[in-house]
Amino acid sequence: MSYGLEAFDAANRLAFTTKAPVFAFHYIGQATYSADFQNFWTDYTISSVHRPIVFVAFPNDGGACIGLHSMTNLGGNTWRIRLLDMRFSGSGRARPTVHCFARLSNNTPASPYGMMVFDASHNAVLDTTRNPLVLSQSELVAGLSSGSLTPPDIGAPKFMLKSMTSPAFHAVSVGFGDRYTGGTPFGNRSRYYYGWALSSGGFYRQWGLFESGLEDGGAISFAIFIAGEQRILVTDMARYL
Amino acid sequence: MTYGFQIKRANGAIQFDSSDVDIQMILAVDILSIAANQGYSQSYLDFVGRQLQLTPISGAETTSPPDGESVAITYPGGIPTLNIGARAYEQHFLLMVL
């Protein structure tokens, strides 16, 4: 770099930089519960000038099958966040909490103390007065492609959480698989969604039956369960709240 | 800490510590909005030698689907180069520096 500021951590990773277009995310708040949708979906909304990124705090009881289904701009600064929450309906159990971060939308600090970093266009890219996002853990979860007739078992945790007070997870996208069991002339098709679960400090991919119905599957029994590789990012909400 | 710098909150809690490899400030290079049935290809000359990471930010999508929709970050000559294959629906990704 020919000017500006860069900082690196002990592993020589870029900690922050004034070089555009790099920017940091900052905490903008908790999305508000809006509505349940077709039993398995829950909608939340939040106001943000920029597209937010979502970190979900899971109830820590092992019963979840939770994931991010979609995020939609409803017009203006209003965003709808739709979660898969397969265990909530009728259960009375706790909902997940949806925390949102976004890039800075103004150049004014929130308090007179702290540090701000600007890019060459004089836009703030880091503002320590506005709770910049800091990762506590980053884990790569391998994908899978299974021909098994039953959904892959919850099995071993994909990773164990490091010690932190209030973990929240990014990139918890949902996926699905289909199972066909034989019958002549009709077979049964079942759709399974996968989400994620937190139990005793372990983070799991978890499958849940979404719907089951008749379809002409002939006498063939097979199933396809596919999930892509995903990197799960973890932050400790105790840093911001 | 013996080197680097720390940022603390008003209550004394450490917000950031450049010497702690377990605590990392996330730095986004871009938020990519990929329209339906379109792909994306870009080299990032400003980040030669650095590792980039892609994560989905808006739902049912993965960064490495095994069903023919390709996503790849390669480093020819140390230059991070991102290729996202065309997908059926509009999708959004966060590209960040690790």
* Morphology call of chain B: elongated
Largest sheet of chain B: 3 strands, antiparallel
Share in helix of chain A: under 10%
End-to-end distance of chain A: 35 Å
The tally of beta strands of chain A, per DSSP, is 21
Supply the key terms:
heterodimer, A: 241 residues, mainly beta, four-stranded antiparallel β-sheet, 21 strands, 53% strand, elongated, B: 98 residues, three-stranded antiparallel β-sheet
Word description of this protein:
- The complex is a heterodimer of chains A (241) and B (98).
- Helices cover 0% and strands 53% of the residues of chain A.
- In chain A, strands 14-20-17-18-19-15 form a six-stranded antiparallel beta sheet, with no helix packed on it. In chain A, strands 4-5-8-7 form a four-stranded antiparallel beta sheet, with no helix packed on it. A three-stranded antiparallel beta sheet of chain A has the order 3-9-6, with no helix packed on it.
- Chain A has no helices and 21 strands.
- With 241 residues, chain A is mostly beta strands.
- In chain B, strand 1 and strand 2 form a beta hairpin.
- Chain B is an all-beta fold and 98 residues long.
- The mean pLDDT of chain B is 78.
- Chain B is elongated.
- At the A-B interface, strand 2, strand 3, strand 7, strand 12 and strand 21 of A face strand 3, strand 4, strand 6 and strand 9 of B.
